[in-house]
Amino acid sequence: MKTITLIIEGMMCQNCCSHVDKALNGISGVAANVSLEEKKGEFIAIMGPSGCGKSTIIRIIDDIIKPTNGTITVDGYVYDNNKEISKEVIQKLGFIFQVPNLYPWLTIRENIMLPLKIHKLKGEQYEKKADDLLAYVGLQKYADSYPNEISGGMSQRIGVIRAMIHNPQILMMDEPFGALDEDTRETLNVELVKIWRDTGMTIIFITHNIEEAVLLSQRVYVMSSHPGQVKTELTIDFGEKERDLDLLSDPKFAQYCTQIEQLIGHLALDEIK
Length: 273
Prior knowledge:
Elements: E1 6-13, E2 18-20, E3 30-32, E4 43-47, H1 54-61, E5 69-74, E6 77-79, H2 87-90, E7 93-96, H3 108-119, H4 124-136, H5 152-164, E8 170-174, H6 182-199, E9 202-206, H7 210-216, E10 219-224, E11 229-235, H8 251-272
Parallel strand pairs: 1-3, 4-9, 4-10, 7-8, 8-9
Antiparallel strand pairs: 1-2, 1-5, 5-6, 10-11
């Protein structure tokens, strides 16, 4: 897979009351004021208090929200509040939000293939890929069902593979499992690790759940608010151990969780001061 560079420079969004100046400085593939070559297949988690700009970053990259200032650069293509994101750029990115937003009048297969209309991609190979992705997550028998006929966990699986239908190089996930019960969330975390390993995509994952961040990611970035910026980077290293639920009982897992909890607590105290 070709490495891809994504740069955020001096970006601010006044409409969202979230400053994103220097946010993500130092993250492979996502940086502020520095151009970095992304490590292939890296899994990054971003944490921070509500309102610090985590979701704003993703929405600006996706061109849902226009920045007040600054630029976004993806693989050499620059866009800002005066320039639309290009078709070439959007095809490199996949986005998953907390609510999968499946269209109730479309079948599951049709929902998965919906991004192809946006990207104006056609061909029988994509219908086959939709069926292959459904089989990959064990939902092939629901291809002709409708969203009201499947569970919340199933809907979120559909949201994940829908974001993969056009072969993105970077998958951006904004608290995708935040509304699910703990058991379903843990199951989907394990499935996401498998997707990450099998595809080699880079994943940028926003979450409020510390255990989720430690289980999934190789690096955790903790943001502060006022202004929103990355204050701390923590590398998560379990060596050759599999990223599965057995890690939850590993002493290092508890240590990492405690470190992050303390970092977030210290940042909160600093902001009060």
